[in-house]
Structures are given as structure tokens and as C-alpha cells.
Design goal:
Elements (H helix, E strand, L loop, with lengths): L1 E2 L4 E3 L12 H5 L2 H7 L18 H18 L1 H14 L5 E9 L6 H10 L3 E8 L4 E7 L18 E7 L6 H14 L6 H7 L9 H10 L1 H9 L5 E5 L10 H10 L12 E2 L5 E5 L4 E5 L5 E5 L2 E7 L24 H7 L5 H4 L4
Parallel strand pairs: 3-6, 7-12
Antiparallel strand pairs: 1-2, 2-4, 3-7, 4-5, 5-6, 8-9, 9-12, 10-11
Length: about 350
């Protein structure tokens, strides 16, 4: 287990005394191996289970999720247009991210189902004790990391799903959350549909409940009004074709065009190994009509940027031959902890 001040990354490594020997190793599933080796290069992974969902249908779902996201987030729409214009209409997504309530079946598993059905594999769990969160990320099926296509029609993104550990919240706020998830009924079985439609699976919340949750957890308040909507998409900067493929240049490019970056921990978030570099804009806000006839501005979503550097063992590969599997894989608690702040009021109200 690896710990940091911001959170915990749960990882397991093989040792000389590993139980993966003899007959036991033959019974170990691919998903289990992926969980035990969360950051190994994906090109060396075994084939995942055959998808149980047609690819054309699956990509249509992703496209619908993206359309809802872009309709609510003008900054993300403008950034994507800007980058496409500068980069010859070629953009690859590094990952999509979702937020959930970890209670009564409304957590990670509810959103993960469609991705697992399409052949995604579970990789690594990350924990954020201070935020009362945990997350899992999922890798797309083998063969879907290529460079053909653009956007949702291009390489399939990794999936990052987090959940609020509701039982760690104060009793009054647990009661508020359960009040809404109870009205959802079996809505948790249709999380992907809700995301694609941009609809909540529970009743429209009261502003007083939103305010109450936000005082303890801004994540909880965000999820109450946004539900299963895409929290962010991430541009893979190293897959761009122009000079802005370097994320430091990319950040300057974004700021020079008038967009504000999340400054929590600095504009650029860097993993301890120096191989995963991330940044993000600050979330847009739009009016929300609450059930008690109050209309107030609430944070929506943001857009993230990520550069994955080549792993040391592949540093001698010619640049034109470097593939995604030669680059740093996975996520980092310290980076993600700061990226979460893109929807915080502190960032939204920051003047400089």
C-alpha cells in the first residue's frame, strides 16, 4: 500500500512468495491480474472479456454523454474548438470521469456496468480520506488504444469513477443523501442512460438540502444536482500533432486565450515519479431551478489535460514509434486530489 498526505493509492505487487504459482495462477482472472498490476503497460495486458455491447451502440452512448457535457459547459466546448482549430481537428481523450454516491447501489458499480459490459477491465483503487472518497479506474479493451479517429470516435478513453463514502458523512447529511437516492428507486440500474440524457435519477433537490451538503462536502452537493453527468473529459496532450503536445506549452496556450486554470497545488500537477502531468480549467456554473422555486448558479463540469511521459525502460524508442503502452499508466492520488478542486467554490470565486 502506498500512502500520501492527500490520500491512499491501494496497490498490490507480486513477490517471490506470491500465491500466483502452480495451479492457482491458472485460475487467476484477467481482471484480478489487472487489479494486482494496476500501472503496467496496457499493450502487455491479456485480452479482456469479449464485449457484450456492440461498439457502435457503445460509442453512441459516449457521444450522447459528451453532447450533454458540452451543452452545459461552454468553456469545455470553446477549448475543444480552439485545440481542434490549432491541431488539425485531431483530439484523443485520455479519460472520462464520473462522480457517484456510494450508498444503496448508487456508487461506482452503477456507473461502471456499461463499461465492464463493453470489455473494460478494473485496474486500481484510489482513496481520498480527507474528502471521504474512493475511486476506481477502468482500462478499455485491448486494441482500442490506437491513434485512429478523433474524440469519441477515436481511441477509447480510460474511465475514472469516484464515489462519496456516504457512511462517513455526518448523520444529518447521510439522511439528506438517502432521501434522494430512495426516490431514485431502480435508477441506479440506468446510470449510463441518465448520463446520456443529462437527467437526474432522483427527484429535483431542495436548495436548502444543497446548501446543507455543500457545507460538509462540495463533492456531495455537486453530485446532488449533476447526478451521473460527465464530471470532465481529458485531452491527451501528448497525442496532439503540434507544439502544444508539451503540456507546459499547452497550459500557456490555454491561458493566453483567456481560460483560467485550476491553481490548487499549482497549475501543473505532477506525480511523484514525474511521469504523469495534469492540469484543468475551472468548472463552469449555470443556473439550476431547485424544487423549492429557488434558482441559483451551481458548478457544472470542467475540462482536463494530461501528458503521459515515456517510461524509463522505453526511453530509447524512436519518438515516431512510441505507443500509448510505452507511457506512464494509471492515476495518482496527489494529482487527482487537486483536480477534484476544479468544482470548488474557492476556485470558482478566485479572481486571479
Amino acid at each position: 500500500m502506498i500512502r500520501s498526505m492527500e490520500g491512499v493509492r491501494v496497490s498490490t505487487f507480486l513477490t517471490p512468495r506470491s500465491p500466483l504459482s502452480g495451479a492457482a495462477s491458472n485460475r487467476m482472472s484477467v481482471a484480478s491480474l489487472n487489479r494486482m498490476l494496476p500501472n503496467r503497460p496496457i499493450c502487455s495486458a491479456s485480452q479482456s472479456d469479449e464485449p457484450r455491447v456492440a461498439e457502435s451502440f457503445f460509442r453512441t452512448v459516449l457521444s450522447s454523454m459528451e453532447k450533454v457535457y458540452l451543452s452545459r459547459n461552454p468553456t469545455a466546448h470553446a477549448v475543444l474548438d480552439l485545440v481542434r482549430a490549432h491541431n488539425g481537428d485531431h483530439i484523443c481523450y485520455d479519460h472520462f470521469a464520473f462522480r457517484t454516491f456510494g450508498v444503496d447501489g448508487h456508487g461506482i458499480d452503477s456507473m461502471a456496468k456499461i463499461f465492464l459490459d463493453f470489455g473494460y477491465t478494473t485496474r486500481e483503487e484510489l482513496r481520498f480520506p480527507a474528502k471521504k472518497l474512493k475511486a476506481l479506474w477502468f482500462a478499455p479493451p485491448a486494441g482500442h488504444y490506437g491513434d485512429n479517429g478523433s474524440g469519441v470516435g477515436g481511441p477509447l478513453p480510460r474511465i475514472f469513477i469516484s464515489e462519496l463514502l456516504v457512511e462517513e458523512m455526518s448523520p444529518p447529511n447521510q439522511e439528506v443523501i438517502r432521501k434522494y437516492t430512495n426516490t431514485s428507486g431502480s435508477g441506479n440500474k440506468h446510470a449510463a442512460l441518465a448520463s446520456a440524457l443529462g437527467s437526474l435519477t432522483w427527484e429535483k433537490p431542495l436548495y436548502s438540502d444543497y446548501q446543507q451538503l455543500s457545507r460538509e462536502s462540495e463533492y456531495a452537493a455537486w453530485t446532488l444536482v449533476n447526478g451521473y453527468a460527465l464530471n470532465h473529459v481529458t485531452i491527451s496532450t501528448h497525442r496532439l500533432n503540434s507544439h502544444i503536445k508539451d503540456i507546459k506549452r499547452f497550459n500557456r496556450f490555454i491561458e493566453d486565450n483567456g481560460f483560467k486554470l485550476n491553481s490548487e497545488g499549482g497549475n501543473l500537477k505532477v506525480s511523484p515519479d514525474g511521469l504523469l502531468l495534469q492540469s484543468s480549467t475551472i468548472a463552469d456554473s449555470t443556473p439550476f431551478d431547485f424544487a423549492d422555486t429557488v434558482t441559483e448558479s451551481v458548478p457544472r463540469s470542467y475540462i482536463e489535460f494530461a501528458e503521459r511521459l515515456v517510461l524509463p525502460q522505453y526511453k530509447n524508442i524512436a519518438e515516431e514509434k512510441v505507443e500509448e503502452c510505452h507511457r506512464r499508466e494509471g492515476f495518482e492520488v496527489g494529482n487527482a486530489d487537486k483536480i477534484f478542486e476544479s468544482t470548488s467554490m474557492e476556485q470558482l470565486t478566485r479572481k486571479a
